[in-house]
Write a structure and sequence with these properties.
Layout (H helix, E strand, L loop, with lengths): L25 H9 L1 H11 L2 H6 L2 H5 L6 H19 L11 H13 L5 E7 L5 E9 L9 H10 L4 E7 L9 H17 L2 E8 L10 E3 L9
Parallel strand pairs: 3-4
Antiparallel strand pairs: 1-2, 1-3, 4-5
């Protein structure tokens, strides 16, 4: 269905060259490319955006004041909008199991020779929003502050987080400090209504230890 646009609308506000707001009308947006007078003439001739989009560069160029460069810019804007409507975004990784978290971050952590603490921010469907690299420590010491963990989660409107860090020694067995930090962050998340889904510690595989990570939730440290 096609909709006719009003021929006259209020002029663009703000200084020359300023970007139009998201509430700008079609005529205002067109004016930001071709100029106010030219926008009125274009919509007077072509009446609808659909007809305007179908017009060739030569047809646009016939409108007084619309040269080849403005005509080309108008066509490019419509083609860009068409590309946007056809864009298919890849699905964000689903992090609903410890194995998926380990698979996502294993290679990134493999070469670290000091501990790195990361927070995977998740949406309500447990899909990844981003991985935030929070801090790094000495060979076996890592300082983590709850305010830093949750600040990014709040900014990105995350519904849940997964805590991740590596053990450079290769042994992913949690230390007393790992357990304490995890429980502190769980309590903090409960207050903020941000679920701490798990804490994954990444290590290295050995013949005796074929699994190179542990899940503190699976080990029972998420329960009192």
């Amino acid at each position: 269905m096609q909709y006719e646009l009003p021929l006259f609308e209020k002029p663009l506000e703000g200084p020359p060259g300023a970007l139009p707001s998201s509430q700008a009308s079609a005529q205002e947006l067109l004016a930001s490319i071709a100029g106010k007078t030219q926008a009125e003439k274009l919509l007077s001739r072509f009446r609808t955006l659909t007809d305007l989009a179908k017009a060739s560069v030569d047809e646009l160029n016939e409108v007084q004041g619309v040269g080849k460069s403005k005509a080309a810019a108008i066509k490019a804007a419509f083609l860009l909008a068409q590309k946007l409507s056809q864009e298919v975004l890849p699905e964000a990784p689903l992090l609903d199991a410890p194995e998926r978290v380990a698979d996502l971050l294993r290679e990134q952590n493999r070469l670290y020779d000091v501990e790195h603490f990361q927070v995977a921010l998740l949406n309500t469907r447990k899909r990844l929003i981003e991985v935030h690299n929070l801090s790094q420590g000495t060979l076996d010491t890592l300082l983590v502050h709850p305010r830093e963990v949750f600040a990014r989660a709040i900014t990105r409107k995350a519904a849940a987080i997964v805590l991740v860090h590596n053990h450079p020694s290769g042994d992913p067995t949690p230390s007393e400090a790992d357990i304490k930090v995890t429980r502190d962050l769980i309590r903090g998340g409960q207050l903020l209504k941000i679920e701490v889904v798990d804490h994954i510690i990444l290590g290295k595989r050995t013949e005796e230890r074929p699994r190179d990570f542990v899940s503190l939730r699976e080990l029972g440290y998420f329960y009192t």
